[in-house]
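Quick review question:
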């Protein structure tokens, strides 16, 4: 069976006055209709990998890969027009903080309808009906009221749900969630994860879940990729994360607080030059 997404030797670099910064250095993985977690500290290349798949790398960035294939489509060779047609319709991305992702001068309902009507020829009435249904699907209690609100009028959790609704309205096959719960409190985090879990299961989507929270990923995802300095250092089943072999992954796990243990100060990573080689 052909994988939904195949990434082979993906590289993302940025020329600067002082030299070339290599943000992603030879990342390779495949994704089926499953939940794949990508974890690592800030600057490890997680978000840059997701943006390269989406075609959202800034213009001055250089993206290369031996293969970057989405369901038979060569994303490296795809034109800007082809990429625009894919984004939102077949591949969608939920960003970290809704207040920076939603348009502050457009109502939430109008933004969701605009996404749908960009990819499908539907009437305004049908778009509104489907937008309300999607807001209800992401467990917004009063979708008609929220439909007419502006982003600044909703909480962070509700804004993130609206963002998820907007990304799912056109029925994508692949969803990239870039730390979608990091700005939310714990109870809202669980609600958002339940929504994603239900929608992925019901729609048979592939999900790339980018996070720095190892506990969250180990309980939510099927597989986990651990990144350090733009490279993958370890790949394993999420349920086996506690048995990780790479010293970097072990170090990340060891830095987490343990209930019932006196660990003050918390240990810090003892980084080795060979991890980044």
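Suggested answer, residue by residue:
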């Amino acid at each position: 069976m052909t994988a939904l997404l195949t990434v082979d030797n993906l590289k993302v670099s940025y020329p600067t006055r002082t030299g070339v910064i290599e943000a992603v250095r030879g990342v390779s993985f495949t994704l089926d209709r499953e939940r794949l977690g990508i974890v690592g500290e800030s600057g490890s290349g997680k978000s840059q990998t997701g943006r390269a798949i989406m075609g959202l790398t800034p213009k001055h960035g250089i993206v290369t890969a031996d293969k970057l294939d989405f369901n038979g489509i060569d994303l490296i060779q795809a034109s800007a027009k082809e990429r625009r047609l894919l984004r939102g319709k077949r591949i969608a991305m939920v960003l970290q903080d809704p207040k920076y992702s939603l348009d502050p001068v457009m109502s939430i309902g109008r933004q969701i309808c605009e996404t749908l009507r960009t990819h499908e020829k539907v009437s305004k009435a049908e778009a509104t009906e489907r937008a309300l249904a999607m807001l209800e699907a992401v467990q917004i209690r009063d979708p008609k009221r929220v439909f007419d609100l502006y982003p600044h009028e909703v909480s962070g959790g509700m804004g993130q749900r609206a963002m998820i609704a907007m990304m799912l309205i056109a029925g994508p096959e692949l969803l990239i969630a870039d730390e979608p719960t990091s700005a939310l409190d714990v109870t809202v985090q669980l609600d958002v994860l339940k929504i994603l879990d239900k929608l992925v299961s019901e729609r048979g989507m592939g999900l790339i879940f980018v996070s720095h929270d190892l506990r969250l990923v180990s309980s939510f995802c099927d597989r986990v990729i651990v990144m350090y300095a733009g490279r993958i250092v370890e790949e394993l089943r999420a349920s086996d994360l506690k048995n990780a072999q790479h010293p970097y992954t072990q170090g990340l796990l060891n830095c987490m607080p343990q209930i019932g243990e006196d660990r003050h100060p918390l240990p810090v990573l003892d980084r080795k030059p060979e991890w980044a080689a």
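Why it works: The chain is about 35% helix and 25% strand. The mean pLDDT is 89.
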